[in-house]
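User: quick one
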Amino acid sequence: MEMIPTTFGVLVLTFLLFHVVGGSPAEVVLGKNATAEALAAFDARHGYDKPLLCGHWTEIRALGKTPSGKLAQRPESGLFRLPITYALPAGVYRVNAGHVLLGLRESVTGATDEALVDGPAPLTFAVREGWSAVSLDVGGALPDYMRLEKKNAGRFDSQFVHYVVALAKGELGVSTEHGLPVARVLQAGVGPSLALTVPILAGGTLVGVMLGLLCAAWRGGVTDRAVLILSTVLMSVNYVVWVLAGQFLLAFKLRLFPIWGFESAAYLVLPVLIGIVSGLGRDVRFFRAAILDEVYKPYVRTAQAKGLSGSRIMIRHVLRNSLIPIVTYVSLSIPFLFTGSLMLESFFGIPGLGNVSLNAIHSSDMAVVRAVVILGALLYQGVNLVTDLCYAWLDPRVRLL
Amino acid sequence: MAMERNILAKLWRRWDTRLCLLVIAAYCGAAAYGEIVYQVSRVSDQTPAYNQVHEQARYVPPAFVRMFSPAPRAEESPLYPLGSDNLGRDVLQRLVQGARIAFHVGIITSLIAIPLGVVLGCLGGYFGGRVDSVVVWLCATVASMPGLLFILAIAMVVGQGLLGVYLGIGLTTWVSVCRNVRGEVIKHRNRAYVQAAQVLGYGHARIMFRHILPNVAHIILIAFSIRFPASVATEVFISFLGIGVQGEPSWGIMINNARLRLWQGVWWEMTFVTIAIFALVLAFNHLADALRDLLDPALRTEQG
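Assistant: Done. Structure below.
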């Protein structure tokens, strides 16, 4: 039941990363030379002009920089023209001055109008539907820092709330790179990713556990030492090198496998092989340690004394009891089945989620990256929950909750 | 401190860990030399030797291969002990610069991740209750992020340069350190010496950092010996993808450059970069194993 606050934490963390830290998404997507109008339109469409968490007013980007000297040099009318970068559309605004002169223009007919608003600062004024404010002059006592804010639809009409609600509805946004909804992009990539990562996980676990059993059965002997050294060595080879060397040596030089592509199952053999071997070092060490922990328990010696054969002890008793840490370890990798292996997919041209994420990162397609990160995190929560349930099944001493 | 001298002596005595220590020292030296070269080139505003392009000396094979080939090399081109890459730049010098960047990444990410993990682990383990719940929640939240993707996302969001890489790796890898430290602190929390210190009226901070922390310090050393090679490996991967450091020859960038040349028969660049990374990571991994056996009897791997 710790899933709920953790899920909330995941949402907050991803929100912080993608919406707060990254700066203005509009600028990232549209580029540096976009007009202020275009930026504002992007913000309005995607809801980035709302406050982050909550509040009635958001500062809008229409206000350019107020050069500090200018405020002092006002013309005789006593009004200072605020440097707004685009015409303010309909809505309720607020400015921290006591005297405002609006230059209005109707969007359809082009008719112009002027409106004067007076009152205690900060002043609230509204631009009617169908009109836009093309100029804004302020007068009276002006503070050093001018603020122009737009009123929000409601107190909680904020980016964060929208974020959570959209996720709850399953809307993941639109990919800026493909123009397709993110859900569709992800859906297309899941199949190939699974076709790659499931065999890797299954094969890796099988081989790893077998090697672990062998090491535990002949502990201290030559096999054990050799496997231990080998696994340390294997673990130290960089993953990049595994993929590159594997592709070069086995596919190109020796011509044993196809080099690139996703035509048939045969194309998956080499990536799966590389995936298994690269993870083998780390996995075997863990499995060996987990199984050894079991082997040193007193019941094993009893079983040996009883006359049970070595393999029977190992397979029927030791393996079963050491399954808990093994299952935990394996289940930790399950969420990554879906996110796919970034390197393998991009090098072997397998159109899976890993490839999709990598392209999204390279093209700054934030919607897709965000979606994959969130999905990965939520999957992790789900898998943890299932693992806890499995504990109860594997170990009768563990009670649920 | 006495403990450190003791550990160093024990590591030196075994031949395999002595070799690891020597290898790491050699890399430290290379990184320091690389740093000097880099700073000198920055101060004097010249293109450093490892970045100078020699058009006429492209794809020069390494020295020991050249000994067998009859073709003489041009007089002006520098000596290339390990060969040159596609722009005529010396592979050995670029490897040294790669070592410099690798050490930067390893040390800075450890400086981010380890103190963060230690402080949070101590706080959670010592105080228990609500504080602990918050720490555990934080650990679980960060741990559920898909690792590499999150690092890449952070690097993407923070922008160009190494800062994104440092923050990305540092802010995602503190969790295991935190969990380990928290476990140890919880074990120590109810020991007699802690209770004695509390009775004596020492403040919580003092008890945590002057009394409990030294007993937990071995975890920090082990964590560093694991984190360093992992950070280096991750940095290789990230710079291979083109994110992070630009312009400076990081090992990952060298691998990326060497990749296509490999298929055309230029094997030396890729081979030597691979060996360079492999040697450093292997030395650290083996050292980490030995440290674990020495310092934490509960985690022995060599048990026979």
